[in-house]
Amino acid sequence: MSTGAITGYIDVAQIALYVFWIFFAGLIYYLHRENKREGYPLESDRTNARVKVQGWPSVPEPKTFRMANGDSVMAPSGKTSKQSLAAVPTGAWPGAPLRPTGDPMQDLGVGPGAYADRADVADVTFEGETKIVPLRAAPGYGVAGEDADPRGLPVVGSDGRVGGTVRELWVDRSEALFRYLEVSVPHAAKGPQVLVPINFARITDRQVVVQSVLGSQLAGVPRTRHPDQVTLLEEEKIGAYFGAGTLYATADRQEPLF
User: Fold this and answer.
1) For the chain, is the Cβ count within 10 Å smaller at the N or the C terminus?
2) Which of 82, 62, 83, 81 shows the shortest CA–CA distance to 73?
C-alpha cells in the first residue's frame, strides 16, 4: 500500500473507538454544564462586578421547563436569594467560618440551619393530591399493628424535659411512610401545633425523644400556614430549625469534643 494510505494504519474498530471517546467527552461536558442550571454563579467572598464564580464550563443559557401542573420554570433564572444572613466571617480570608450575630435557632440560614428557597406550595402526588397530610385527612392510612403508635406520647428534648405531646402523624401518600409528628406545644405564642421531622425523633413505647433540640425549643419550630398542609418552603425551614439545633441548641455543642 502506498505511503499516506489511511486504511493501512487505521481500521474500523479503531475509528469506532475514537468516535466513542469524542462522544463520551462531549457527554461529560454537556452533563457538567447542565448541572450548573441551579446554584450558579456561586456567591462567595470574591463575588463582585468583575468576578463571576462559575468555573469551567460556564453556566448554560436559560432554558424554559414545563411543569406537570402547567407552570413554567426558567433555569438558570438569574434570581438571587432574599435571605438575610445573620452572621459575619470570623476572619478576613475567603472562606472563613461564619459566626452567628443573633439567635441561630431563629435566624435560619447559618451552618446546619441553612435552607433552600423552594416554592411556597405544597408538593402533590402523581394524581394531583396533596402529598404530605395528617392521618385525619388520609383515609386508608394508619400505624402498623406491630409498631408503636406515638400519638398521645410526651415529646422530650435532649435535656429530658417535656416540650409537648404527639397529636397526630403526617403521612407521605406517594411513599406510604410517615414524614412528621404533629406535636401540641402548650403556651406557644406562634400556635399550639408544630411539626417534627420523623427522622429527628426516636419513638419508644413511653415517649418520643428529639435529641437535636431542648424541650423548651420545640415551641420555636416554624409553623405552617395551613393546618393540614406543609409547603416545600415550610419543609425546608422546619428541617433547618432542627438542623440548627444539632449545633446551636446549647453553647457546648459549638465547642470541640476533645
Assistant:
1) C
2) 62
Three cell numbers written together for 78: 438569574
Q: Is the peptide bond before 76 cis (omega within 30 degrees of 0)?
A: yes
172 vs 125: CA distance, rounded Å: 9
The enclosing H or E element of 178 equals strand 177-184
* Distance from C-alpha of 192 to C-alpha of 215, rounded to nearest angstrom: 15
CATH no., domain 111-254: 3.90.50.10
CA torsion 72-77-82-83 (nearest 10°) is 90
Q: What is the pLDDT of residues 29-87, one digit of tens each?
A: 999 999 999 888 887 766 666 777 888 898 999 999 998 778 888 888 877 788 888 88
**What's the rounded Cα separation, in Å, for the pair 102 and 85?**
10
pTM of the model: 0.82
Helix (H, G, I), strand (E, B) or coil at 174: coil
Is 180:171 a contact under the CB 8 Å cutoff?
A: no
> Roughly how many angstroms between the first and final C-alpha of the chain, as a whole number?
76
